Amino acid sequence: MTSNARPADRLPDLYTLELLVAVTENGSLGAAARRFGISQPSASARMRTLERRLGVRLLERSTTGSVPTAAGLVITDWARGVLDQAHALVEGAAALKARQEDRLRVAASLTVAEHLVPGWLTVLREAVPGLHVGLQVTNSLHVIEALRAGEADIGFVEGPWIPRDLQSAAVGRDRLVVVVAPTHPWARRRRPIAAAELANTPLLLREAGSGTRETLERALAAYDGVAVPALELGATAPLRSAAIAGSAPAVLSDLAVREDLAEGRLVAVPVADLPALDRILRAVWPRGRELPEGALHLLHAARRRPGA
């Protein structure tokens, strides 16, 4: 279906995205409406407008209430990312307005940024209370590009290789896990799946250039790499949601799915004839360039609170 609406007219407003996230977090549309201090009909109208703009049904409506659909859960994860970026924009603008002289520019791959950097920043603020940190969240390849372009003082990556023009220091370890929904046939197997079967199966994967994708492709190089993905995205959260919904197997960081595995939303699938999908998490910076004091403190914080 074609539309004559301008691109800006199709964009959802942030308030409605916050309302959508609140529906998932509070368990119902009515509870979300009360949280925002609006009537349920008003909240319902906003959700219907959002569904029309996106062309996706977000809520399953019944006489007992409204709950997110499987697609709604994926959109909600994306909405969280948009809201995080919006909050980052506001915080960045405030930092520019205040003209803070003490600043540290950090670029981190998605897994590291989501699961480890917040703890490191807590330690950093205790050591350097007045330091302003600008965090660029991207994939490992773009972290390297940001360092080369002088757009970051220090980076954190999860890829299996470090270019020769960068220095590095290990800050932790991580491993990739093949996960499926409990209803998936692989979840009921008594024996590990073969590495060749994994290589030939369309998977839920991160985009090319991410450390997660590169680690998996190297591990499956003997089997001609990975098959055409069932879904390929530049974010972990929607892939995780799609795996929980049973769309296809996913290969994700243990850091990202640990809670889902513990609570039974996902099942880990062992793979035979495949080297362990372990990887070292590293801090990186341009070779020959002295790290600024703030970056040294952050590196120390990362070593004090290493990855799993």
Main attributes of the structure:
308 residues, Arc Repressor Mutant, subunit A, transcription, 3 domains, D-Maltodextrin-Binding Protein, domain 2, two-stranded antiparallel ribbon, 12 helices, seven-stranded mixed sheet, alpha/beta
Distance between the termini: 47 Å
User: CATH first level of the largest domain: which class?
Assistant: Alpha Beta
What global shape is seen? globular
| Low-confidence segments | none
Give a structural overview.
- 44% of the residues lie in helices and 21% in strands.
- Strands 3, 4, 5, 6, 10, 11 and 13 form a seven-stranded mixed sheet that branches. The protein has a two-stranded antiparallel sheet with strand order 1-2. Strands 7-12 form a two-stranded parallel sheet.
- It folds into three domains: 7-78, Arc Repressor Mutant, subunit A (Orthogonal Bundle), CATH 1.10.10; 102-172 and 280-304, Periplasmic binding protein-like II (D-Maltodextrin-Binding Protein, domain 2), CATH 3.40.190.10; 174-278, D-Maltodextrin-Binding Protein, domain 2, CATH 3.40.190.290.
- It has helices at 14-26, 29-36, 40-54, 70-98, 110-115, 117-127, 140-148, 195-200, 211-219, 236-244, 254-262, 293-304, and strands at residues 59-62, 65-68, 103-109, 132-138, 154-157, 166-180, 193-194, 204-206, 231-233, 250-253, 267-268, 271-272, 278-286.
- InterPro entries: LysR_HTH_N (IPR000847), LysR_subst-bd (IPR005119), WH-like_DNA-bd_sf (IPR036388), WH_DNA-bd_sf (IPR036390).
- This is LysR family transcriptional regulator.
- Keywords: DNA-binding, Transcription, Transcription regulation.
